[in-house]
């Protein structure tokens, strides 16, 4: 592949990524106009991502158009740094969450998760009140828990379902609590649980409460 072909490919690839970055930035600006705290909390990361992609793309695009060796080297070095950062992030994410693969329970097809299975650093981040408030507001607005009763019409269907980690940890009390399920999103809390798990007391049937403050949800 000659120099001309290489610069042609780089030019068009980066033109496309610039357009993509522009769309991401517009999306970020749109999110900032909402009063929704969940969306607003994501505004800065989205804008930062869009701006970063745009900056890299414009360096590559200008380098290819002007056939500037200096700009192309800067472009390649930045790409290398990004690739290394992604690799490091992937490894760290694996280390942090490696032990949190979930626990199986007899008679259930889905897994339940325990906060203490994760690294101490991860626990500190999740137990940060401000961080969890933002995450919780997003979970409540998603209304995944409310949809469970419509998704699974019978208790048998619920028990045989492969619930997502959010559905299993945030929408229902831990199995060890022993609360009988009335339907997919409502449990009989009059049952006296003998479990010492604090999540059993934190769970409520209210749509905005559920088990969002539980360790199983975090």
UniProtKB/TrEMBL annotation:
**Which terms are listed as keywords in the entry?**
Membrane, Transmembrane, Transmembrane helix
Compartmental location: Membrane
| Recorded topology in the membrane | Multi-pass membrane protein
Gene Ontology biological process terms, A to Z: auxin-activated signaling pathway
Which Pfam families does this UniProt record tie to the protein? Tetraspanin
* Membrane-traversing stretches: 12-30, 42-65, 72-96
Query: Is this entry keyworded Transmembrane helix?
Result: yes
What's a single GO CC term here? membrane
State the family named in the UniProt similarity comment for this chain: Belongs to the tetraspanin (TM4SF) family.
Q: What is this protein called?
A: Tetraspanin-10
Species of origin reads: Brassica cretica
Provide the organism lineage as a comma list: Eukaryota, Viridiplantae, Streptophyta, Embryophyta, Tracheophyta
């Amino acid at each position: 592949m000659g120099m001309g072909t290489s610069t042609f490919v780089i030019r068009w690839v980066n033109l496309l990524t610039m357009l993509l970055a522009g769309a991401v930035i517009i999306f970020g600006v749109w999110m900032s106009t909402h009063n929704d705290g969940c969306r607003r909390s994501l505004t800065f990361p989205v804008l930062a991502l869009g701006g970063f992609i745009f900056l890299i793309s414009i360096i590559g695009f200008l380098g290819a158009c002007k056939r500037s060796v200096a700009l192309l080297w800067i472009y390649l070095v930045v790409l290398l740094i990004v690739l290394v950062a992604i690799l490091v992030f992937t490894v760290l994410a694996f280390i942090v969450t490696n032990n949190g693969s979930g626990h199986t329970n007899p008679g259930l097809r889905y897994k339940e998760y325990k906060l203490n299975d994760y690294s101490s650093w991860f626990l500190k981040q999740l137990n940060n009140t401000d961080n969890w408030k933002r995450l919780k507001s997003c979970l409540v607005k998603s209304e995944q828990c409310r949809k469970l009763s419509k998704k699974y019409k019978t208790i048998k269907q619920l028990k045989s379902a492969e619930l997502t980690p959010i559905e299993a940890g945030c929408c229902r009390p831990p199995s060890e609590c022993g609360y009988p399920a009335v339907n997919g999103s409502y449990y009989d809390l009059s049952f006296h649980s003998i479990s010492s798990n604090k999540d059993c007391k934190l769970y409520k049937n209210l749509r905005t409460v559920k088990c969002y403050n539980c360790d199983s949800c975090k």
